[in-house]
Predict the 3D structure of the following.
Amino acid sequence: MDINVIEGKLSQDEIDYYVDKLKTENPDKIFKSITIKVDGDYVELISNYDSKPFDRIRRITGYLVGTIDRFNDAKRAEVKDRVKHSLVDPKI
């Protein structure tokens, strides 16, 4: 992670404090860089982070699932035989 201090100076303890605070307030973020902008008595934290991948959850045969890899043969057959509905109006 890249940490930059601009428009002022901070001690390493202060930098560590602000970085820890930002990480504590945003535990789900993966930070690429943090810029600490010093303006007199005020500090602005500017962060740049990677997006965290997410799991898609769907409702399949009455269950909320991400994938069907844990389904038994009967549930897999239900998934195979289910009717998928489209959003297109057949009258058009």
Observations:
- The longest strand covers residues 30-39.
- The two ends are 54 Å apart (CA to CA).
